[in-house]
Design a protein that fits this description.
Layout lengths: L1 H18 L3 H30 L18 H14 L8
Helix pairs in contact: 1-2
Length: about 90
């Protein structure tokens, strides 16, 4: 899957830079395309999470909180605080 995605992105980048009036415009369009695709893909994965599974929950077909929140709220509240907290082994 990853190889197919990378091949598709390489083709898209080549075609956008060839079709754009300036090379910079083609690269900007490609960058915007990848950014929007990443944002939409993250949210789509979050919406499908009740059916696929969650790291913190037991396996279930559909949980009670299936449609609560979104991926960006999860990143902001559950992932970023752990990235910026001091390492517990560094206490003196």
């Amino acid at each position: 899957m990853a190889v197919c995605g990378l091949a598709g992105l390489a083709t898209l980048r080549r075609d956008l830079t060839a079709a754009a009036p300036r090379r910079v415009a083609g690269r900007a369009a490609f960058t915007a395309w990848v950014a929007v695709s990443a944002l939409v893909g993250g949210e789509l994965a979050w919406v499908l999470r009740p059916f696929v599974g969650s790291v913190y929950e037991p396996i279930a077909f559909l949980r009670d909180d299936a449609l609560d929140g979104n991926v960006y709220e999860f990143i902001w509240t559950d992932i970023l605080p752990h990235l910026f907290e001091p390492d517990p082994g560094d206490r003196r």
